[in-house]
Design goal:
With 850 residues, this protein is of the alpha/beta class. It folds into five domains: 75 residues, no CATH class; 138 residues, no CATH class; 254 residues, Rossmann fold; 177 residues, no CATH class; 107 residues, Winged helix-like DNA-binding domain superfamily/Winged helix DNA-binding domain (Arc Repressor Mutant, subunit A). The chain has a six-stranded parallel sheet, sandwiched between helices. A three-stranded antiparallel sheet has the order 1-2-3. Strands 10-11 form a two-stranded antiparallel sheet. Helix 25 crosses helix 28 and helix 25 packs across helix 29.
Length: 850
Amino acid sequence: LKQAARYCNERGIALACATNGFEWIFFRGLSTPTRPWTKGSAIIFSGHDDIVARFDEFLASLSRASAGTSFLHERLELPPTGMLPPSRVPRDVLTFARKERDASVAALVRNISDFLFSEIFGEQRGDMLRRCYVAPGSSEEFERSIHRLLKDSESVIDEDGIRAVPTDAEKFVAHVDRQESAGAKQPVVVVGNVGVGKTTFLQRSLAQLRSDRSAICAVVDLEGFGQGGGIDSTAEQTRVATEVLEKLQTAVTTVLKHRDDLSGAAKLQGEHSSRETLSTLQLNKLQNAKRLGQALWSADPTAWLRKEMDLFEQLTSQPIQHLVAYIRHLHGRFRRKDSARYPILIAIDNLDLGTDEYQRSIYGLAQRLTRDTNAIVVVCLREDTFRLGREPGGFLTSSAFPFVFHVARPPLDKLLRKRVSFGEYAEANQGLPRGLRTEGARIREVCELVRTTLLPQKSEALELFAGLAGHNMRAALDLVRALVDGSLDAPGRADPSATYAFECLLNSSSYETLQARVVNCFDAEPAAAPAHALQSRLLAYYSFATEAGPERVLLEDVDRAIANFSGWGYAVALVRWSLENLVKNGLLRDPKGGRRPNHQLPRRLSITASGHVHLSRLIDLRSYRAAVAASTRWYDRELADSFIRTAGDAAGAAGLCLGDIIESKAVDVFDAYLAQSITREDGSLTIGLGGHRWRAEVLSRSARVLPAQYQPVPPPVPAPSEPMPAVATPPRRERGKSGQLQLALGMRDEATLQKIHRDVEYKGTVWTPRILWALEFAKRRHLGPQRASDLAELLVRYGDIDVPRNNVARAFRDFRAEHGVAGLWTVEKKRYSITEAGALLLRFLLSDEP
């Protein structure tokens, strides 16, 4: 066992198995500072009979299929001992208030940003749709990692013989013409991510189709429907058919009102519920009924009127049959001036927001309409919805798709340039809405703000917004509007930095927009050593996997990642919780885009653009740390209370704002807590994985999780012309006349360590700060480990604190049962040394002195 454990620690291998041919012992051979391999647990098979009785477990422990998974790690993990540290969340105590602002100015700026940076289709927006539409698929000037993560390739659905066609309005209109001419009997499918611009693409294409072909187009928006609960398929199809009827009638009225060659009676045939149209739709039934009951109708003319109404009611009470008959009627009844028939196009948008059962139901209605009529039906689906629908038993397996239209993410910078240019054009040419026509100066200010912050080359703010929104351009525009709103209270001049953009988001009145996109990467579950750096390190792990190439992502099984971090020393349950939290908040995702059944982790994960932005842009921003500090679970009550007290003292008359926390020392308290906690966290991890490249990459990529002032500083390298400093001689110990041990210290100036105030307390005692100060003083003077009496003398001589020698020893005895000082110092043979966590805590205590 010792030989196997030595091999594990030399090679950085977590698990080991030892056998004599009859007995088998599986154990963790890799030691951590807090758990040597001799203090772990083991799985023992005591002989052949035991192996046969537990053969499934034996096979799973030994088989290659379990190698690199979390199977053995979970079974060999020790349960936590003792009580877990209680947490404290400052937001539960602090009361936040929004900054007071001029309501009229804020409302005006909000109206301007809603006009310029929202949807560009709808009533009175035809000119904006024409001038501001951006063809999907172009690329931005982004940092390489963000650009790659935002790349939206058609290859995601190039499978099973289906070709993904990149979309533009001309190709789409040409395809609709071919579909109509060929009498195709399958819906046209438009595929794209949520918020990528499928609706805008449809509206732009339909506008061109109306102008080029005078087509009859109806767009049905299903947003908000079919999102939960049981689905009554018949009722949902009936509701959608009724809405399509109304939309088609509106479109027909718009098309026919410009036809001066048609009489008023002819135009009435375009109304789906007019007597003239219903008589045409039920013509055969009316003729048969009139022929069969001619004698009855002659005797009682009112009976014939009742019969007509019954037949009309029979049709209108069945909206699906009514819609099919109405579409056939429109196609056969009306022709353009060139004698060609009007194309009839029905677009079903946002179907992908509903459940699978709802999508299956509505897609069945679309199939029926294309099969039974001459209409072209367009269905918009998400990429993952399309992929699931194509799986065996999916609702799309009955349709043959030679190709689908793929809507890629448009470039955010080009989109914003067009919006800003349109705002300036509309202001100069009286093209603004009525309420904004007298606000030209304010509109120019908003346009200049966006141009200054988001449109310069290599803008960090633009990369931040694009990364947080991902493929969802609707969310990106939400962030732009929040930037404009928050700029009213932002300190300093506008610039393209991520810091300025994030502070504007914090100041925005739509704080919910920020909460939906910004994730707390520092929160941690209760543990003996809370893992505040774990989420950031998992992001760094998957960032490294993505940088290594697409094949690495596909090979990076989630179980393998859990096993790697468990081998490093993290508990499997903590790693799994962190992964689930990152997936739930969109920082990690399934690279294949599948959905998670029962909230289970996907088999494979990859980092998203939002995850990359959190890792590379946000975690070291002071404003981000201020925003998440209040909602983080603190496991040091003393520091949590100090944060609450410092933040509360900084509050203004109207209450506490995030800006107050940013400007106060409360963020410094949070940084000190993180540094101390992460040092303890690292102290519980093994150092035997130093030869593994992934560990070095993780530590390098997640280094920003520690504040800059707590990063290890390498010793300065003197210039060649400067003499090399003399090597410090170790201190010598001398006996004074009184027989007491005297310290002959080096010549270094003691002012390099600020003296500790005698009244500074930590966790209700003054002895923790005093002992830490003395230990740090001894460390800086290279005095080596110190006894309690030595520390007392250091405090008296250099700390100006009168301390009886036995009081320090008594304090150490009292600390033995105290959990709050664990990890601040180490002891060996009654000699004490300060740890990195203790040094970081001392640094905070010195900076927090009144």
